[in-house]
Amino acid sequence: MGKMHVLILAWWLFVVNESWTLAAVGNERTVSPRFRPAPTPEVTCKEHEYLHPSNKYCCEKCHPGYRKAEDCSGPNTRTGCEKCPNNTHTEVWNYSPNCQRCRTCDKTFGQITITQCQDKINTVCGCPEGKFKEPFGHKKFRCTACKLCTGGDVRKKCEFLTP
């Protein structure tokens, strides 16, 4: 490649807003990048990972029962996770900075606690024996007393039900 071709190529690269230099390698002259940031490859994280806020690498999510205290500091480093405090939980792998508050069974609707809240599971509410769940509102229920069917047709046997 002649000097004129190299100068035209260098000028063209400068015009397209790239910073390049000429480097002599043996008998050939090559154009190489200088002060050019590396292109950011698209990062794909695995199921139990999340994309670090820098968008450069993946961090492992926290196990159920834990919350994210701090992001990992780089590839192949651990995310800082802390166990959920009492009366809170996380049921899934997560990178939330907060654990969820435990559900409280609503005694005014006759609900009872079937399973206490633990770090990995929320409280499970139900109805006492002889009552059934009657849905109302969004994800709410009240416990209603079972009644004998008139006419003898039983649509559904009334029994102790869990969610």
From TrEMBL:
A GO CC term attached to the entry: membrane raft
Keywords tagged on the record: Disulfide bond, Signal
Disulfide bonds: C84-C99
Domain of life: Eukaryota
SUPFAM superfamilies in alphabetical order: TNF receptor-like (SSF57586)
Gene3D superfamilies noted in UniProt: Tumor Necrosis Factor Receptor, subunit A, domain 2 (2.10.50.10)
The TNFR-Cys domain, residue ranges: 83-125
GO BP of this protein: inflammatory response
Gene Ontology MF terms in the entry: tumor necrosis factor binding; tumor necrosis factor receptor activity
Signal sequence segment: 1-23
Pfam families reported in the protein's UniProt record: TNFR_c6
The UniProt record lists the keyword Disulfide bond: yes
PROSITE patterns per record: TNFR_NGFR_1 (PS00652), TNFR_NGFR_2 (PS50050)
Ranges: TNFR-Cys repeats: 83-125
Protein name: TNF receptor superfamily member 1A
Taxonomic source organism: Latimeria chalumnae
Organism taxonomic ancestry: Eukaryota, Metazoa, Chordata, Craniata, Vertebrata
The gene coding this protein: TNFRSF1A
